[in-house]
Amino acid sequence: MNLCRFSPPLLIAALLTLLAGGCSEQGSGSGEATGKPVVVLKTYAVTLHDRVEALGTAQAGEAVTITARVAGRLEEVAFSDGQLVRKGDLIVRMDQDEELAQLAAAEAQLAEHKREIQRLETLLSRKAAAGRDLDERRTLAAISASNIQEIRARIAELTLTAPFDGRLGIRRVSPGALVQPGTVITTLDAAGAIKLDFTIPSTQLQGLKAGSAVEATGEAQPGKRFTGLVSAIDSRIDPVTRSIFLRAVIDNTEGLLLPGSLMRVVLRKNERQAVVVPEEAVTQKQEKHLLTLVGADGRAEIRAVEIGLRAGGLVEISRGLKAGELVVVRGMGFVQNGKPVSISETWTAIPERDGAAEAAR
């Protein structure tokens, strides 16, 4: 084609027509850009709970210090260090020879009074005795019976037995020792169930109640977790520390926990089903927390959500997200709201990371 044959106005019009046709063909051939590929998570619900941590002291379910009640000499020590005993088992017996002699005399006297009462009753039925004599003998018999009870009570004070099933501690005395009231002989603990006493700030009380789950660990048993339940919450908040006293009961049938142990306590409260996402999937703009989602039409949606618990690299989405939706966890920086998204990988579970299992238990 010889361009010299066209006049300048016609030449300009022809060039514009060619350029317009070329641009139109290029746009219709490429279509709408799909963007860079991203990784998404198909969200699901897990069980979450809020954690409250505290330090507590282990106490035996029942505990007592065995002491002498009266002064005297130890006649017999009937246990060994750390021995298991049943309720009523003999622990120590103090010298009680004098009391036993008095008991024998009182019992013999009571027997004599009873025989005399029978004789007088026979005579009285024949009108051969006075009723006053019978009454006096019955009074003497009642006094003797009272003396016997008193002597037996003194003997009981000199005979120490186990008040409940448990394990005895270290023996502190020896046979023949002269003891005084209050002298420590040993200790007795029923530690099949441990009472764990601890305090928490009163601000953490909301959602806690008797029956809430407790986990405890101790330095004496590293890596061992002991589980139990809150058995009681004190009725008052300490006005000085603004803390409140709680007690939990932990099973200790294996005998691994010793009374007096310092333990780290973790309380669970507000257990619930919630959707979580990796914390790197959440972006923040001013005071808003944003997630990038991929809709059913394959287009991106940047959505404002409300977050809750953060733990172990996971973030609870308390409002604005449902289980089953697709959340972008890799490559959200290249996604524009309303634009198509290319999905290169879909997670059906969040990869495990330090603390993630603990947060979602």
Automatic annotation (TrEMBL):
Domain CusB-like beta-barrel positions: 197-269
Segments passing through the bilayer: none
Residue ranges of coiled coil: 96-130
SUPFAM superfamilies membership: HlyD-like secretion proteins
Keyword Signal: yes
A molecular function GO annotation: efflux transmembrane transporter activity
YknX-like C-terminal permuted SH3-like domain boundaries: 275-342
Domain Multidrug resistance protein MdtA-like barrel-sandwich hybrid positions: 63-183
PROSITE patterns attached to this UniProt entry: PROKAR_LIPOPROTEIN
Keywords assigned: Coiled coil, Signal
Signal sequence segment: 1-20
Cellular-component GO terms for this entry: efflux pump complex
Family: Belongs to the membrane fusion protein (MFP) (TC 8.A.1) family.
PANTHER family (alphabetical): HAE1 FAMILY EFFLUX PUMP MFP COMPONENT (PTHR30469:SF16), MULTIDRUG RESISTANCE PROTEIN MDTA (PTHR30469)
Protein name: Membrane fusion protein, multidrug efflux system
Organism name: Mariprofundus ferrinatatus
